Amino acid sequence: MTFQVLLASFIGSTVEIFVPGSMFEGTLTAVQTGAVEVQESPVIYSKPVLVTIPTPSIEYVRVLV
Q1: pLDDT tens, position by position, 23-60
Q2: What is the reported pLDDT for 62?
Q3: Confidence tier at 10 by pLDDT (50, 70, 90)
Q4: What distance separates the 2 farthest-apart alpha carbons in the chain?
Q5: CA distance 36 to 28
Q6: Those residues with Cβ within 8 angstroms of residue 1's Cβ, 6 or more apart along the chain or in another chain
Q7: Order of strands, edge to edge, in the sheet holding 60-64?
Q8: Pick from 37, 65, 34, 36: nearest CA to 50
Q9: Where residue 65 falls among pLDDT bands split at 50, 70, 90?
Q10: Which of 7, 11, 30, 49 is the most buried (most CB within 10 A)?
Q11: Cα separations (Å) of 51 from 1, 26, 47?
């Protein structure tokens, strides 16, 4: 089982993705070969932000239940 296959099983779940110097929290929307997409929650009256994170830069992922 690859990292991408494992992450794909959590599409639709709330996740925290840690990369060097940053953390992204939101709903996992897509997993591709070289990247994952997370839709971050809006900050006061703004629209949700879709963030693309390259897979090689991910340190670890926490799936929130």
Answers
A1: 999 999 999 989 999 999 888 888 999 999 999 999 99
A2: 97
A3: very high
A4: 40
A5: 8
A6: none
A7: 49-54, 35-40, 22-31, 14-19, 60-64
A8: 37
A9: confident
A10: 7
A11: 25, 9, 13
- State pTM to two decimals: 0.91
Query: Among 59, 57, 39, which residue's Cα sits nearest to residue 49?
Result: 39
Q: Amino acid letter at 42?
A: P
SS (H, E, C) 9-55: CCCCCEEEEEECCEEEEEEEEEECCCEEEEEECCCCCCCCEEEEEEH
